[in-house]
Write a structure and sequence with these properties.
The complex is a heterodimer. Chain A contains 17 helices and no strands. By secondary structure, chain A is mainly α. The termini of chain A are far apart. Chain B is mainly alpha-helical. Chain B has five helices and no strands. Chains A and B meet through helix 5, helix 13 and helix 15 of A and helix 1, helix 2 and helix 3 of B.
Amino acid sequence: VKKIVQVTLGILTAIGGFVDMGDLVANAQTGARFGVDLAWVVLVGVVGIIVYAEMSGRVAAVSGRPVFELVRERLGPRLGMANLGASFFINFLTLTAEIAGVAIAISLVASVHYSLVVPVAAFLVWLVAWRLPFEWMERVFGLAGLALVVFAVTVWKLGPDWGALLSDAAHPAVPAQETPFSYAFYAVGLFGAAMTPYEVFFFSSGAVEEMWGLEDLALNRANVYIGFPLGGFLSLALMASAHLVLGPHDIAVDTLAQVTLPAVSVLGRLGLAAVLLGIFAATFGAALETALSAGYTIAQYFGWEWGKHVRPKEAARFHLVVLLAIAGAMVFALLGPDPVMVTEYSIVLSAAALPLTYFPILVIANDPGYMGEHTNGRFLNGIATVYLVLLVLVALAAIPLIIITKGGA
Amino acid sequence: VLLALAACTPHPVGPARTQDDYERKATTTVDGALSAVESVRLLVQAALDGHTFAGYVGTVVSEQEDAIDGLGSTFGSIQPPPGRAGEELRAEVEQLLDDALEPVRDLRIAARREDTAAYEASLSEIDAAADDLRAFVEAHP
């Protein structure tokens, strides 16, 4: 019974923890602007993150070591450093966006400008990352993030023409008022949001924190194969609710508050409470993941002691990096960048760095020296290789698309 | 990080070289204002149905007010092309933005005072502003 509870909790946590600031912004923006014409990208992204997150969880469970430590060992310090630089920069932008998201969620309740709440949000993130045990941290915010199911309830309550909705999603096209470049820009953004690099760094480091072994491979598969698709379902529900409520009013999503409008207008105060709780939990959970990922990647690259499973005194440099990353992100958020624009850039730039993250995972997952009999099978390698080609194409397109579309304008 | 900050901070834009260019920027500006005003309209309707609480309404309206204000500042910083057509377009857009800003500002004040009775009065002005903005966007595709 204990095992079943553990697996169920893991799945629920994976669902609630799947959505972050990037998913909230990207899905609401595309839903309001493109309808469900980009829903296919979410499906492609979810399959991609399933393939590579399963691999990274398996690598951690079999070798007892996280992905980034093995990246440096397997690919050498130079390529490892390039990977570290790109990942850390994108992770930093994502952390800034998540802290801003937490502050905005609080400000909508407290009725003050979000920038006044940014230091409070940053302090809370640091305090929880420092004090709360890993397992509790993951479960509290993952489970509270399930409140985002409010978007699915919103769509159901609206009672759309399901046939037309599915038909639109199944026959994607560039809307008349859009250009192929803006369509491609948002497709890349959605893909980047679904496959954000910190997710695999956190997932594999978390597996080591929770001391996964071979007996946890089933839990790894359950989290990834059930939890992530259901998390993707929340993303699609968010896209559909924005399409059905914001689209007809010509509302483009430029602020996080606009993401809440469909739930508020359809479900009332209960919807408002649920959506604010869901956004708070999703962004807070992701802020914790990105803050810890900053510490994980640097500590694992340099071979320092790391993690919440060891006493803080023994992993002082790891905790210092986490603290500095949070403080840096707080200062950056206070300098006045638009949180939604930071989110947009972080997800599109994530897309540009995806091969650096996922190629080494594929190499290690095929190395019998690390994996023994648990290397990838042929079928998985086939899918992973197709995705690697896709990742390279997306990475090549990301920065030119930012320039051509002036950031999706 | 500095480059990222520059990219993610709204900033004034340079001159519009041609009337077409200026018109495109005007349409983008008015389109942004329409989005903000429609957000407020949706919110007020929800508030009148008892779907929200005053603090939330005040914060969201204030954000949209800032958005319209920012659009006005950005558009105002664009040097129009020489000629009367550019000047007329500038005056038209600025008037539209002023007309949109006023009821949103009134609503923000009402929300902060928790004066929900004033929402209904603002709604008709917001409806009118939204209609004018949409008419402009449709006339300048």
